[in-house]
Amino acid sequence: MKPYVFISRKLPEDAIAMLKEKYTVEMWDKEDVPVPYDVLLQETRKADAILTMLSEPVNEEVLKAGEKLKIVANMAVGYDNVDVETAKRLGITVTNTPDVLNDSTADLTFALVLAAARRMVEAAEFVKEGNWKSWSPLLLAGQDVHHKTIGIVGMGNIGKTVAKRAAGFDMEILYHNRSRKPDAEQELGAQYVSFAELLKRSDFVVCLTPLTEETRDLFNRNAFRIMKDQAVFVNASRGPVVNENDLYEALKAGEIAAAGLDVFAEEPIGANHPLLELKNVVAMPHIGSASMETRYAMMKLCAENIDLILSEEQPKTPVN
Ligand code: GLV
Ligand code: GLV
C-alpha cells in the first residue's frame, strides 16, 4: 500500500502533482474554509504525512492520533500552531517553510510601513468615496519614512530582509533579538539595542518575532507608552504577540500614531473588530507571504519535505 498523505486545504493540482504520482493523497476540498477539527483528527489517524496550514491546531491529540504519522509539513515559517515538543517525543518530524518567503514577507511588511506612514489606505478610500474636492496643502499629509529610525524586533531572516529595504530608504536601523546578528550589523549597519531602547528611539517599530511563551503580549500597554507619540507600529508575525486592547487604547489616546497589522490575536477578524474603527489602522488578512510565486514555492517545499521523509531521507527544513 502506498503511503497516505493528507493535505488540510485544497491546493492547486499542479502544486501537488509530484505527491500524487508517488502517494495516495487526499485533500480537504475547500480553499477558503479550514478543515474541521474532527476531520483533521480522523484523517491523521490514517496518515503517514500531513501537510497543514497555520490555521490548524496540530496539538497533542492530533499527533497522538497519527499512529503512523512521520511528518507534519506546515505551510508557514511560523509553527506555533504545532506542538513541536510532543511531535519530537513521538518521533514525528515537523517542517516549516523558511527562506522561500523572506523577500515576499519583507515586501509586505515594508508596504505596511509605507501605507501606515503615508496614510495610503485612508487616502485611497477618501478618493473612492468621492471626498476629494480640491488639492490642499496638508490634505492627508502623513509622515516620512526615509531617513527615520526603524526598530526591528525579531532579527531573523525576514527581519534582515526588511532591514535591507530600510537601508535603501536611508533609515537608521535598530534591532532587538534573543541573539546578536553580526552579519546584519556589519552588512546593514543595524545596531543591537535593548527592547526598551528600541521602543524609545524608533519611529517605526516592526514586529517579526515568532510567537512563544516569552513573546506573548510583548507589545502591551507599557511598551506602547514607551514608544514615541509619532511612532508607527507594524506587526507581521503573530497576533498574540500584541495585546490588542492595549494597542487600541494607545492608538485612540494618541500614544502612538498608527499601526499596520497583517496578523490578529484571533483570525479571521470581522468588520466589527474594534481596531477597524480607527482610521490610523491599516489591516491586512495575514497575507505576508501571499504572492503567487512564493505560495507555490512554499507548497513545493512542503511536498519535498514529505517526499524526503517518506523516502527515509533528511528533510530540507526540519524545525525539530
Ligand atoms: C505566515 O505567517 C508564516 O508563518 O509563514
Ligand atoms: C488581546 O487582545 C491580546 O491580543 O492579547
Describe the structure using short key phrases.
alpha/beta, 12 helices, five-stranded parallel beta sheet, 320 residues, binds glyoxylic acid, seven-stranded parallel beta sheet, Rossmann fold
Small molecules (ligands, ions, cofactors) in the structure: glyoxylic acid
- In N-to-C order, the SSE pattern is EHEHEHEHEHHEHEHEHEHEHEEH
The 3D shape can be described as globular
Named CATH topology of the largest domain:
Rossmann fold
GO molecular function: glyoxylate reductase (NADPH) activity; hydroxypyruvate reductase [NAD(P)H] activity; NAD binding
Domain D-isomer specific 2-hydroxyacid dehydrogenase catalytic: 5-320
Pfam families: 2-Hacid_dh (PF00389), 2-Hacid_dh_C (PF02826)
Family: Belongs to the D-isomer specific 2-hydroxyacid dehydrogenase family.
